[in-house]
What we know:
The chain has 9 helices and 7 strands, in the order H-H-E-H-H-E-H-E-E-E-H-H-E-H-E-H. The chain is of the alpha/beta class.
Amino acid sequence: MTTVRTRPGLGELRSTANAIRRRNLEIIHAAGLGHTGGDLSAADILTALYFAVLEVDPAQPDAPERDRYIQSKGHASGVLYTTLAAAGFIPDSLLDAYMAPGSALNGHPDRKRVPGVETNTGPLGHGLPVAVGTAIAAKLDRSRRRTFVLCGDGELQEGSNWEAIMAAAHHGLDNLVLIVDRNRLQQGARTEDTNGLDPLDAKLAAFGWSVREIDGNDIPALLEVFDAVPFSAARPSAVIANTIKGRGVSFMEDRVEWHHKVPTAEELDRALRELSA
């Protein structure tokens, strides 16, 4: 059985989240590739999960009774890799090979090459269906393990997600937690201008989910909501995490061009200074 790490204090968690952001920006700059804005919006979510919530052990990344974390927004691989390094699943030095030819740290996570990655993601709309499967498997095994899955909000325009949302409610998967990184921006535009999702909470509730909406860049709010799952017996839990794309760097925040823009050396230096303040 895996165990939860001793929960750090809020100051330490906030410091860890910004350290993950800094390292993430460094590897994107070095690679000349990445999805900067969505990495930064999700950093607090991943920090809360890996350092305070998930029952996982980097020394036993495949322990049968571990919790599962699936990052459906696989294009945000940078923040996943930097979090896995900070949590001890992979060496920090491996991050220097991010996006390099032949590197294990591809632009989309590969479970066969990176410890701690549960499933390959990249094509949007795949992670949540896989998460439904892992949650069903846990029920069949009579296991207490839980599945957490992070989706981008633009990703919810994929029909496969809504099929999975229906299936999860039908099977009463109260061991499944969907987290929506609701930064309201996708490649090239705002989500509501592309294909409106609101009222997202009402839509998820209508499909049979128990839903809570929080500030997804507020670590205390994240800990409180994750400690409360499942929100209802025999119903899957959905957390609408309202975030800011590019969170923590003033000139990147809520700017659509930072979906996959790479910082220059000058921009990197400015961003690192802001995140160290």
